[in-house]
Amino acid sequence: DSDLLIEAASADFSLTRQSGAPFRLGLRQLRVAMPDRVWPKTDIALSLWRGDAGISLDLYAEHLVLQELRTLVDVRLPEHEARDALKGLAPSGTIRDLRLQIDTRDSPPTWRAAAKLEDLSAARWQDVPAMEGISGALIANSGLARLTLDSRDSRVTFDQLFRQPLPLDRIRGDLALSYDADSWSVRSERLVVVPGGPQRCRVGRRADR
User: Fold this and answer.
1) Is the model's pLDDT at 84 over the cut of 80?
2) Distance between CA atoms of 179 and 170, rounded to whole angstroms?
């Protein structure tokens, strides 16, 4: 693990802790300065409840830059599989209005997430194709994710299907991803892809891990 060097940090904040209630933290216009760059300002709200049965976490972030989150991953992420995936994908772009809920009191633990994605790019990793310029909205939970796409001037690289990256003037529609420990599948009943002229298509893909 590497060190995370922070030269300065500032924010308007509120902090609340009452017996029997979640710990709550609010940060407005959070600014973090590192030796080589300054992170964009953002608002963050956190609610955390911890007990013998586990934790319940509710996180909101107005604006997150994926390149900066990768810096935190380099410092420490306890789940090795998630850390390897993030390092392999090397994602970049912006996440807005992120809402993340995790509850480990359930068996198995549950989580839910929702966010807006802007200009998302990622490297090819395992069966996931490389992509550039993907924008849309994401809703996900344990085992299922839905991505509503609205992207322009994108590129997707399917090494197994095309020799060259596939330029896409426009991608619009919904993708549904389901996954478990052994396999994943992605499906769309309505996806409009515009490489040079509009084409409506139906997509399905399944892969075993």
Assistant:
1) no
2) 27
